[in-house]
Amino acid sequence: MGSLSGGRSRRTGPGVWAQEHSRLLSLLTARLHPGDVFIDVGANEGLFTIPIAEHVGADGRVHAFEPGPDTAQELRIRASAANLLERVSVYEVALGAETGSRLLHADEEHPGDSTKRSLFIEGPVVAEVPVRAFDEMISSGEVILDRGLHAVKIDVEGAELYVLQGMERSIRLYLPRLIAVETIERHLRRAGYALPALFGFLGHLGYVVLDVSDQELMFDAVFVLP
């Protein structure tokens, strides 16, 4: 999934989003190596999944989580076309803090834009989707991290904190080098929390914000271990 900003005044044309994507992808690939494992939460059609799967190589692994049935299918099609299905696993679920199900809604003003879908807005219903905690999927054997976990990207239109809460045990165990999280304040507020809660949770896990002043991120924050 993907989105629009909250606390700061900013332009949000296609060029701005393309620049943000390029910068974030560069930060991720700089810290991922051949054979590494990447978790893409809110993978949509594979904007990060596909290039990172190519980057980590045949010995690497990408676990991509995308609840929208149509976008998950498109992601599978794109991964297949790129001959990446052996290293990309697609899970048609929304990650959260606990098991359940919720309605995935499209944005009322942009119903055709799959990047603006959210569990926390009113709009056309896309589907009722399962919600799972990542740690539970690890415990059940549905997700296997036999090669570790090296980086995480979370872009889920407000549910970022809940995703992190649901994967706390895995983060503590595997200590990924980098966690990239979308931080659009109005999206967090509609999900029932604010930016300090998100930063505080990652700080509690031992992560600090990476200084990216040389390539400013407008919609995301990147966290690393000190």
Salient structural properties:
single chain, 226 residues, alpha/beta, Rossmann fold, seven-stranded mixed β-sheet, three-stranded mixed β-sheet, disordered N terminus
Q: What is the CA–CA distance across the termini? A: 29 Å
- The proportion of residues in beta strands is 15-25%
Gross CATH architecture: 3-Layer(aba) Sandwich
Sheet having the most strands: 7 strands, mixed
Q: Can you write the helix and strand succession as a string? A: HEHEHEEEEHEHHEHHEE
Cα radius of gyration in angstroms:
16 Å
| Number of H- or I-type helical stretches | 8
Structure write-up:
This protein is α/β, with parallel strands linked by helices and 226 residues long. The chain has a single domain (14-224), classed as Rossmann fold (3-Layer(aba) Sandwich). 33% of the residues lie in helices and 20% in strands. It is built from eight helices and ten strands. The protein has helices at residues 14-31, 49-56, 69-81, 134-139, 160-166, 168-174, 185-190, 195-204; strands spanning 37-41, 61-65, 88-91, 94-95, 100-105, 125-132, 151-154, 178-182, 208-209, 220-224. The strands form two sheets. The protein has a seven-stranded mixed β-sheet with strand order 3-2-1-7-8-10-9, sandwiched between helices. Helix 2 (49-56) links the parallel strand 1 and strand 2. Helix 5 runs parallel beside helix 8. The longest helix is centred in the first third of the chain and has 18 residues, at 14-31. The chain is globular and about 40 Å long. The two termini are 29 Å apart. Mean pLDDT is 92; it is low at 1-11.
